[in-house]
Design goal:
156 residues; alpha+beta; Thiol Ester Dehydrase, Chain A; 2 helices; 24% helix; 35% strand; globular; acetylation; PAAI_dom; hydrolase; mitochondrion
Length: 156
């Protein structure tokens, strides 16, 4: 079931991928749930996501943590937005991204990604992400992400 928040978050992801920049690597990510500062997604690990050992590349895991936790954070804005048809993400920037790699996941296996907004203040947000191998339920990686939030001025 698609909720209005989930629909907006999926649209934001689609726009990122359509820009034809680095985010294009995320085109196989399927966002399954979003709202209240949380986001869940899945992705089948493809050859284009692998390292020379045929496991998911660590840089992709870091990218998943960065982008998907940012969208989890955006879901808090979506819920308070008066106009979902013209929603745009609030400006923010990463100030810290930490990844703990626990075990590999191979090409052809499915990642389950769970993102949480731990705290959103006036100027900072703290996010966490767990990535699991959906096939066996084992934790693959854990990430933390800190973002600075920029407020819009009256001239914007």
């Amino acid at each position: 079931m698609s909720t209005p928040v989930l629909s907006v978050i999926r649209t934001l992801m689609k726009k990122r991928i359509e820009r034809d920049n680095f985010d294009k690597i995320l085109e196989k990510v399927v966002i399954t749930n979003a709202g209240q500062g949380k986001l869940t997604a899945e992705m089948i690990v493809g050859q284009e996501h692998s390292n020379r050992s045929q496991n998911i590349h660590g840089g992709l895991i870091a990218t998943l943590i960065d982008v998907l936790s940012t969208l989890a954070l955006a879901s808090t804005d979506v819920e308070s937005s008066p106009d979902l048809n013209n929603f745009t993400e609030s400006a923010s920037a990463s100030v810290q991204l930490n990844v703990t790699y626990i075990r590999p996941v191979s090409v052809g296996q499915t990642l389950l990604i769970e993102c949480n907004t731990l705290n959103r203040g006036r100027t900072m947000a703290y996010l966490s992400v767990d990535l699991f191998n959906k096939n066996d339920g084992k934790l693959i990686a854990r990430g933390s992400h800190t973002k600075i939030l920029f407020t819009k001025t009256h001239s914007e």
